[in-house]
Specification:
The chain is α+β, with helices and mostly antiparallel strands. Helices cover 43% and strands 11% of the residues. The protein has eight helices and five strands. A five-stranded antiparallel sheet has the order 1-5-4-3-2. β2 and β3 form a beta hairpin. α1 runs antiparallel to α8, α3 packs parallel to α4 and α4 crosses α5.
Length: 293
């Protein structure tokens, strides 16, 4: 039993360390979004009923919940296809599709009960999602969300474009709810007919190597004028050793790796205690047997 426990803990710790070493982080493909050109949108100018009114923060929080769930599914559950169902009101859903031979993307589906009526609110949802899913500040997320909306309208329902450049699941996910992909120009075609695509790339997280300090050029000082030595030579003070150049600061380990190392050390200590107790109990049993005999 003890041997099986030792092997299991060591395997778990080793697997965690390998995952940390090979971890890749999703990063929005801004180089692609920067190619988007501005679009003109048609908003609903009708007055909003107090029963359906939501503040800008409430609308942004809907996107934040989606992004936080995708991040949790990816980093904690290590899901092969992170999914967010949009709880508790289920107005939006999201899926992350990893790249393969073609590019990957996040896809946000706008449900029929979302009641989006202005482009400003569409951007708030997308910005809130980006903020939490990619750990980007709100101000920067707003800028990216604007480009995401433009880019999706530029390629509105252009299935050939998405087929040529993206994984097949980018086109297929949520297609049972709407055949349309992208963002229309009119609010009338948003709820239930919108799949917003957010392209991303995977960036491997690496720790930079320490860099040795560059050697400083020697400074040539002018030779002092000759001085007549006194009859009794003065005692020369011992030269003060020059400080050695500081070592280059080593790059810190990722927080995830540090936590795993601490867990591994704790596991080894616990196992050592268990083994010591096991052998002590065994020795007591042998001693008791000797006494009885």
């Amino acid at each position: 039993m003890i041997k099986k426990l030792i092997v299991s803990l060591l395997l778990c710790a080793a697997t965690g360390l390998l995952f940390a070493a090979d971890a890749e982080k999703a990063q929005i493909d801004t180089s692609l979004l920067d190619k988007a050109y501005a679009e003109t949108y048609i908003n609903d100018k009708a007055a909003v009923s107090w029963k359906e009114y939501s503040t800008g923060k409430q609308i942004r929080d809907m996107g934040r919940r989606l992004g936080a769930e995708i991040k949790y599914q990816e980093q904690t559950n290590h899901s092969e296809s992170p999914f967010a169902g949009g709880s508790p009101d289920f107005k939006y859903k999201a899926v992350r599709i990893y790249p393969g031979k073609k590019a990957g993307a996040d896809v946000i589906y706008v449900n029929k009960n979302a009641k989006l009526s202005t482009i400003q609110n569409v951007r708030r949802v997308v910005s809130g999602y980006i903020e939490r899913a990619y750990d980007i500040p709100m101000e920067q997320s707003d800028v990216i969300a604007k480009k995401v909306c433009y880019w999706n309208t530029n390629h509105y329902n252009d299935k050939a474009y998405f087929r040529d450049h993206f994984q097949v699941r980018v086109r297929e996910v949520f297609s049972n709810r709407t055949p349309v992909i992208g963002l229309a120009r009119s609010y009338k075609n948003w709820p239930g007919k919108t799949r917003i695509v957010i392209p991303f790339v995977l960036i491997k997280e690496t720790v930079p190597d320490a860099v040795e300090p560059a050697p400083q050029p020697a400074v040539t000082e002018p030779e002092p004028a000759p001085v007549q030595e006194p009859e009794t030579p003065a005692v020369q003070p011992e030269p003060t050793p020059e400080p050695e150049p500081a070592q280059a600061k080593k790059a810190g380990m990722p927080l995830f790796s540090i936590i795993l190392i601490i867990v591994l050390i704790a596991a080894v200590v616990v196992l050592a205690v268990l083994l010591a107790k096991h052998f002590m109990d065994k020795k007591k049993e042998e001693d008791n047997g000797d006494i009885k005999n």
